[in-house]
Amino acid sequence: MNGMTHPLSLAFLTVAEVGPLEAVRIAATTGYQKIGFRILPAGGEGPFPLMTDDALLHEVTIALKDTGVEVADVEIVRLGEHIDWALFERFCDRCAELGARHVLVAGDDTDLARQAASLARFADMAAARGLTADLEFMPWTAARDLATAVSCHEHG
């Protein structure tokens, strides 16, 4: 080890019960250098305020600058059979405004070729805003494990 420390990121689910402004304050006061936000629902939740509230988005952006905390990742893009690409465009715009680096993507289309095409299209959309599209395999999604995620990548 060269003595270099790795930055720590406060994950969204760790402080999911507080709003994004409070989450930034918690990250800053407890020694985290980065933070993760959820902007789109993972399941049945309603819309998240960073997606719908322009004033809050602005306040959080200022809080990030003031504290030096950076946005590591933003959740969650679900790639299923039917996709609202206009929603994903707005999502990526908001992620870019926050200075985010990575978007967590859930592959939830059982048609792996279509899922790969959707992932490629989303990755291009994200890259245009300086974001990566990081496919997170989860046992309850169609991309349930590493082998399936790799297979999806190979189809693209």
Automatic annotation (TrEMBL):
Entries under InterPro entries matching the protein: Xyl_isomerase-like_sf
Gene3D superfamilies: Divalent-metal-dependent TIM barrel enzymes
Designated name of the protein: Xylose isomerase-like TIM barrel
Naturally occurring in which organism (per UniProt): Rhizobium tibeticum
